[in-house]
Design brief:
By secondary structure, the protein is of the alpha/beta class. The protein has one domain: 3-Layer(aba) Sandwich (Rossmann fold), CATH 3.40.50. Helices cover about 35% and strands about 15% of the residues. It has helices at about 20-30, 50-60, 70-80, 95-115, 155-160, 190-210, 235-240, 265-275, 295-305, 330-335, 345-355, 365-375, and strands at about 10-15, 35-40, 60-65, 85, 125-130, 140, 145, 175, 210-215, 220, 255-260, 260, 280-285, 290-295, 315, 380. The termini are far apart.
Length: about 375
Amino acid sequence: MSLSFQKGRALVTGGAGLIGSHVVDLLQAEGWSVRVLDNLEPQTHRDGKPPWLESAVQKGAQFLEGDMRDRDVVQAALDGIDVVFHQAAYGGYMPEISKYVAVNSFGTAQLLEIIRERKLGVRKVVVASSQVVYPEGAGECPQHGLVFPGLRPVEQLRRGDFSVRCPICQSPTKSVPTAESAPLGGETVYAITKLDQEKLVLTWGRQVGIPTVALRYSCTFGPRQSIFNPYTGVIAIFCTRLLNNLPPVIYEDGEQTRDFSFVADVAQANLLAATSDKLDGKAVNVGSNRAVTIKRVAEQISAALGIPLAPIMNGDFRPGEMRHLISDTTLIRSAGYQPAVSLEEGIDRYLAWIKTQGSIREYFAAAESILRQKGILQRVEPSR
């Protein structure tokens, strides 16, 4: 264990967001001195500073409102910091290309550059990466064993064929856990920039001799997941639809699978990465090692809310989106990570929280129209 970081001075970028705010809470509970940098992106924080940020400030956290693209702001945020938890990112399936690159790729590069050029005392950087760096989850082929399928061709998806096929013989594969050694390749703008972030941080760390860790989060959910952002967070989107008596909208056929992580567990993964040297210099999966279909998630939420609306499945699809993912969590578990909250319990906790948020509006329908206009969302073409 790297004992010098048990109670250090931490900067949490994106510290008002879902994961960042839970990292802040955990650090404060552990006795750390915490500074938060967040631009309060209106897409996520429509009502401005959220109450959990106000609470963190009351407990002693320092808050700087500013953007990762602003060099002066980032420089001020880094002053006197021991450990950086870099959670800030522009995320989801939003249509802006340049903003993704500017916030995620450039913002991360600038942060690292400032630390190096000003010879700051930062002793560790933990960066939020994502499962989206994998073009597709690992598969098992009856003939060729473990294989790593690539991106499914758009032409295949337009035919309504959503299967994942062996790259050698084209036979359908069975989804199996994906280890960190799997091939990488961002296939959406967001994915490209997340891969940028983790490669920048890990490469920089080796060059300057500062320990770094990139945490590849699976689908993270829980209280504080924005009820305003219709572009990210499938559980939140399903909830806002159902609470407005609208059916959930599911892409493809609903049989695609994801590995879900409760946000409090993800915060624990960040603390582990900061206080242990076992993960230094590595990209590390953070997940539950369990996959569930998106259709099943919609059914669970519908049942828990007591709103029995069957989901809409029109065969729409998003080019570049993976079909299946199970995170192989052997590496992080070997360092002591033990996720404590199941998907079912986590959904119950999220629903209990969202019911305290007053009137819930539905923003998804308008956003979906924009995605379709931009070509980010497409539809299966009827066979001729």
